[in-house]
Each structure stands twice: as C-alpha cells, then as structure tokens.
Write the structure tokens for this entry.
Amino acid sequence: MSGDYPAALLLIVFLPHLGKNSGGKHNLIWTKTMRKESGIISLLKERANCKTCNLSNLCLPVGLSEGDVDKLDSIVHRNTPYHRGDLLYKQGDCFRGLYVVKSGSVKSYYEDHEGMEHVVGFFLPGEIIGLEAIHSGCHNCTATVLETTAACEVPFEQLEQLTEEIPDLLHQLLRLLSKEVHNDCGMVALLGNNSAEQRVAAFLVSLSSRYHSRGLSSREFNLSMSRAEIASYLGLAVETVSRTFSRFQEKNLLMVERKNIQLLDINALSDIGGQCSTESHQRSGRSHA
C-alpha cells in the first residue's frame, strides 16, 4: 500500500487511529512530513519549465528566443503524474489542447462500431499528442497512459493566439504537423505488403531511433506496450508477433526478457525492415567528416 500512496496521505488516514495520548507527537510528525512534501512539490514546479526541459529541442520551443520561450511557458499546464490506464482524452471528446509527453509513454487507439480496439500510435517523451483533432475540433481516438507518465498540457486556443505574436512558433507547429503526416505515410507503407518480420523489425528500429534522439540507449530499452498492443498497431495477430520475436532471438538479432529488450544487431534488423539504423547514420557521418 505504501508504494501507491504518498507518506503524507498515509499519515492523514492512520493518525486518527493512533490514540489520543500520542496525538501531539504524531501531529508533529504529520506537520513535518506535509512541509517536506510541500517543499518537494514546490521545487519540482520551479524546475519544471520549458527553458530547463531537456526535451525542448524536440518540442514546441525549437528555434524560439528566450523571451518567446517564457511566453510559451506561461500557457503550459503541468499536471500531476498520470498512471497506467489513465486517459488524457477519449474518442469523441471536444478538442481543447495538445499534450506533450515529458516522461513515460502513451498509446492512442480508436474503437470500431463493434467495440474492437485498434492502436494507431505510441508516444514517447518529447512527442505531441492530439494534433489529429485540430481539423475537426473533436478527438477521433483515445489517448491512454502505458506507464507512470508526466505530460504538459498546452491549451490550443491560447497557443493559436501566441502563434500570431510569435511567427517562429507557428513555423514549428507546422513542422510538427508535417512530421505527423510523414509518419502516417510511413505507417501506410509499412502495413502495405510487408511481411510480419519486416513490420516488427521496422517497428523496433523506429523505437531505437526515437530513443537515440532523446539521448537514451538505442540498443536497450523497455517496451511499455504489450504484445497485443504491438500486434494491433502492426496489423498482425498476437501469436505472430510473439513468434517473430522468438525467431529474431534465435537468430541473435535481439534478446527479450519480459518488457526489457536488447537489440543485438540493429543493422540486420534495419535490413529486414528496410530502414536505416542509428548506427548506420553515425558511421556515415564519421566517414564524411
């Protein structure tokens, strides 16, 4: 239980049952604990801003002056952490703003008329969720948290007003929309006539590249999504995804232990998936230096 609730909350719940004689002592403990947690929360809020965020080079502040970043930061809402299963928004909700993943991961999916879930995207730190709803003013999918996640909420009406004042912000927003279209085109191509091995390999190489661009390991990371969610995203059966992982492991292309995955031969996976790996780009860059 203590792993799910902060210490201050536990003290609030149990203090009334500790006995009247020891009330003064425990009230003092409660007060100190509350002050400590309040101080931590204040410190985190102080540090949480666009200027100090290590993901700003992937997000809306790219190319903005320090003063413009301050203006953007003034409209950003930073919510308390979300937990697995929490919803950022539901299919059919009115569009109010964009979400930027700060840590953790999120999936988006839609439900068909039979109630079947179809995964359409996974979002990592620095990536923006909700762009698809700008056109219709309504979310056509649901965004749900896959693990403990922090996300910044950017009210779109205020963001739109700010783009009139900051042209570079509008340019960055258009770049992000263009990237969304590019990714959608890539997904359509991936699901075309590609085999299960090609789809899974391309998916893993894409994750590897995205983690690398965030300064994280491109070779070893956790898969926060289940095999069923990966299968839904890639248009495959769950059993097919599991067999493909097993085949790749037998070929020493990767090693999987529950959620943890190690890519042992990224270039071979890139060849299968028809993509350029991070390592290939690095070698290419060095050879042209």
In short: The radius of gyration is 22 Å.
